[in-house]
Amino acid sequence: MWSAFFFYLCQKKNHMELPFAEPYKIKMVENIYRSTRAEREKWLKAAKYNLFNLRSEQVYIDLLTDSGTGAMSDKQWSEMMIGDESYAGATSYFKMKHAIERITGFPYFLPAHQGRAAENVLFSAMVKAGDIVPGNSHFDTTKGHIEYRKARAIDCTIAEAYDTTVSHPFKGNVDLEKLETVLKTFPREHVPMIILTITCNTSGGQPVSMQNIKDVKKLADKYGIPLVFDSARFAENAYFIKVRENGYADKTIKEIVREMFSFADAMTMSSKKDAIVNMGGFSAMRSKELFQNASVFNIMFEGYITYGGMSGRDMNALAQGLDEATEFEYLDARVKQVEYLGKKCIDYGIPVQQPIGGHAVFVDARRFVPQLPKEEFIAQTVALELYLEGGIRSVEIGAILADRDPITRENRYPELELVRLAIPRRTYTNNHMDYVATALKNIFDTRHEAKHGFRITYEAPIMRHFTVELEKIK
Ligand code: F0G
After folding, report:
1. How many CB atoms lie within 10 A of CB 130?
2. Residue pLDDT, tens place only, 30-57
C-alpha cells in the first residue's frame, strides 16, 4: 500500500508537461543551397543591392515574405486534382463561395488573382480622386491603389505601434480620437471607406482587438462610412484575440473570425497568407449593389465573376486552406514559431518590435545601427548585411518602402526603420530559426563597424522598392 503511494508520488514528480510540437509531419522536401560569402558578395552587387533582384537559388533561407510561400497540405493538393476548370459556374467557385460564407459570413464575393487585385476591383467601385481613406498603417499596395486614384491614405494607428520598446497587446489598434478627427474634418462624400488591416503588417504584424474593431465600427456607423477589412492575416488576428483579449479564451478561432467579420461591410483578401495558397485572393461584401458595381471591374481586370483570375484547382485549394488556417492547433504552431525566433533575438539583445508579431519578426534598424543617418537607408543596410552573413533574405520596411510624398516628391522617412523576417507557413523548422538568429547576432556584434549605408541610383515613379537600384556609400 505504502509502496504504491510512494510510486505514485515519484511518478507525479517526474511527470513533465509535454512540449509544444507542430500538428503536422513533412511529406515532401525541397533542397536549398547554402552559398559562400564570396558568392553572395558577387550576387548582391549584380542585384544592385536590391534583394528582390536575387534569384531564389542565391538565397539559403528566404524570409522575404510569408505571401504565397507556405506549404500546402496533402488535403489542399488533393483538392488541386479535382478542380473544375469551367469558365462559368465551376464547382470550384461554389466550393470557394461556401467556404467564404461559412468562415466570414459575407454573402457576396469576387475571386481575384491576389490581394492587390481585389483592392483594385473594390477601390475602382468605391474610391475616387480627392477622397480620404483613413485606416491603420495601410499596406503599400493598399496605399498605392489609393494614391493611384489621386486619393489619400491617412494613418490613424495608435502611437504605441511606433515605439518598438513599448509592449502593447494590440499594436494594430486604431487611435479612435485620431480617426474621429479625420471623420469630422472631411465631408462624408470624400471618405468612401475606413480600412482596418488585420493583422497590421506595416506596424509589425500586430493585431487589432475585438474591442477596437467594435469601436471603429461604431464610429464608422456614426458618420455613415463603410468599414472594409484588409484581411490578409485575419486568422492570426483571431488567434491573438483568443490568447490576449478578455472573454475570448473559450471561443474557437472560427467563432472569433465570424464575430470579427460581423463588424465589416466589405473585405479584401490576399489568400497567399491566411488561406495558405501560392496564389489567389478575393473581395467580399454585404451589399448587393456594391457587388454588382464591383463585378464590372472584376470582369474587366480579373476575369468572369466565377473565376476572377484563379483556376478552378486554386479555388479548391483556397477553400480547403481557409478551413485549415482557422484551426487553433495550426495557428498555435505558426505563431509560436515566429515567437521562437523573436525570443532568440531578444535573448541576444537584438532590438525587435515587441510583442513579436504574427507572421514576422521585425528588427528595429534604427536601434541596431543608430550611427547611420536616415538618408542612407538604415533598414536596407541591415537587410543587406544579413544576406551577406547568412544567405538570408529579409525585406526592408523603411524609407525605401515608404517612398516619396505623392505631392512634394520628397522622401518620406517613416517613424520606424524595420527589417522584416517573414516566416513562410509550415515551411522552415526551428533549426532554420536558430541559424537566422545566429546570423543576426553576428552582424549585431559587429554593428559598430558600419560607417555608411546606400544611395539610390534608380527608382520607379511609384512603389519603388521592388525595382530600386542602389550603390554603396564609401
Ligand atoms: N494587404 C496586406 C496587409 C498585405 O500584407 C499584402 C501583401 C496585401 C494586402 C496585398 O496582397 O500580395 O496578394 O497582392 N503583402 C505581402 C507581404 C506582399 O510580403 O507582406 P497580395
Report:
1. 12
2. 999 999 999 999 999 999 999 999 999 9
